[in-house]
Specification:
Number of strands: 0
Shape: elongated
Structural class: mainly alpha
Strand content: under 5%
Low-confidence stretches: none
Largest sheet: none
Helix content: 55-70%
């Protein structure tokens, strides 16, 4: 994957998460009525989730300029979306509006998980191989490294 495509993916998922988080924190009622229409409304809990979304989205946006952050953040985001999709499977028919949106939500979140995983793999392959294991460079040898009698 090209650097530009990877950056587009990071900006997309970062912006979506950031926007959702801001809506959750500033307008929890709007979020509940129009996006997260499951169970009983709890504005405090919605705001707590919003804080997580803002942090996750912000991290993905920062990783546009910090390549070493990309793979870890993308893999954690993929796991988060995958677990979120599994959670939706358990409540797929519990959407308060009864319009079948639970199925669509589950599919969209699962596709997001797959896309984040793919981006993570691409970011990891762009990092190149891990450095060889061994003693840290630039430090003096440890006493145990000297032959006996020296």
């Amino acid at each position: 994957m090209s650097e530009q495509s990877l950056r587009v993916g990071l900006v997309f998922f970062g912006a979506v998460n950031l926007a959702l988080g801001i809506v959750m924190m500033l307008a929890p009622g709007f979020f509940f009525d129009n996006i997260g229409t499951y169970g009983a409304r709890n504005d405090h809990f919605i705001g707590d989730l919003g804080a997580f979304y803002i942090a996750a989205g912000g991290g993905l946006l920062v990783s546009v300029r910090r390549p070493s952050w990309r793979a870890p953040l993308l893999y954690v985001s993929a796991a988060w979306y995958a677990l979120h999709a599994v959670n939706h499977l358990f409540t797929i028919g519990d959407d308060n509006k009864g319009d079948g949106r639970g199925i669509a939500d589950t599919v969209v979140i699962a596709v997001g998980a797959a896309a984040l995983f793919y981006l993570g793999r691409s970011a990891q392959s762009d990092e190149g191989p891990a450095p060889p294991a061994g003693p840290p460079r630039g430090l003096p040898p440890r006493p145990a490294d000297y032959p006996p009698g020296d």
